[in-house]
Amino acid sequence: MSENVRETGFVKINREPEARIALCKCGESKKIYGVRMEKAQGGWNCTWAFPISADSAKREGYDATILKGNLGHTAEYNGCPYCGVKVFVVCDSCKKLNCQIISGDYFTCEWCGSTGRLTDYDGAGVQSGGDR
To answer: Which residues of the chain have pLDDT under 70?
Structure first.
């Protein structure tokens, strides 16, 4: 029996993994996209990414909550729909995701314009919202 299905008497109940959508901005195209993340031990795994308009993202509330923990991705994760990158930079100022398109040790956030030296992500949190 699958670990996501639990049998209770005569009825089988699916236990779907906890999932959220985080917004990311592509440094190459300057466009936003959604990244679906599933709760994993110690953090979140990216499972797929998709283009989304700013209006749709706002309407869905995809910047409403914070995800805490480390970020990883599944083998099937498709990466940015615009540039193909599968690695993120989390801005220390606004906590939003950006494609990791950088030169050298410095990074400028596509969301808020903050610039800083790249460091390891500490799992403090990223802006995200619920997957409906």
So the answer is: 1-14, 65, 103, 128-132
Q: How would you class 19 by CB atoms within 10 Å of its CB: exposed for 0-12, middle for 13-18, buried for 19 or more?
A: middle
pTM assigned to the model: 0.81
Q: Give the contacts of 120 (CB within 8 A, at least 6 positions apart).
A: none
Task: Assign residue 80 a region (left: φ > 0; alpha: ψ between -120 and 50; beta: otherwise).
Answer: beta
What integer pLDDT is reported at residue 132 of this predicted model?
43
Contacts of 39 (CB under 8 A, 6+ apart): 17, 18, 19
Whose tokens are 């989304």? That residue is 52
Contact 24, 32 (CB under 8 A): yes
- The answer for 3, left when phi > 0, alpha when psi is -120 to 50, beta otherwise, is alpha
